[in-house]
Sequence to fold (267 residues):
Amino acid sequence: MKQVIALLSFALVSGATIAQVGKQVNNTSYSKAKVYISVDKPVRGVATEDKTILINPEKGSYAYIIVDNYPNTFPTSQIQLTSFKKYGGEYEKIDSKTYDIDRSLTFTYIQYSFNTTGDYAFDVHDGNGTFINSAYVTANAKTSTTTNNGGSGKYSKAKAYIALDVPVAGVAKQVSSIVINPDKGSYAYIVIDNYPTNFNVDKINLKSYKKVNGKYEKLNDQTYNISGDNYYTYIKYSFYTKGEYAFDVYDENGVFVATAYVTVGYK
Fold:
């Protein structure tokens, strides 16, 4: 599996332009091709399709545009992605970018950043300009993550915060900033406290962000096993570079729990 690796061109065009979904059937190279959106990176070319995704309007979020041509490989070593967003009931072109791909594979994928809510469409062509297929997705705003306040329902009292020590009986001293060794890095604990309600789930999902040029950019997305019989848990997290970080916590059902923030400096 190899991700697309190079951005070659960029163009911005205004005006109403309708995506071409479904018009690839006359080309035998792509007769079985499909393009779809997933919040998960594909494993051996397979991921769960998402028709809607949740984004944080303040930070943005990303998802993967997956181009699946199984069982055929790609006849060219490039693909072009044209993105659209719906305004006033019509799709308007946002941009068009060309990527290098590994043509020996039957699939490829592109990490795409969504910074505003709305309806999106994506046309994919190969390096010869041959249309492959289209994908559609709706980006909705998730519950607010601007503070440590928890989500709705059973997480209405939840909070997430950073601590330098392992919590004792669910309690640790919250810190808003930490310092690390620039050569070795350091770690802290992300504490998730849902007192007085137990989690009653076996896993939590942690999405981490770092602020770059004034905007939070997603770093990684990882799932952890927890004890659902407890009302708190914690994650040991390593920091290697200074900056402003944010951590969104979800349960295994995708329900938002809380967010933690921390500023990291050098010793």
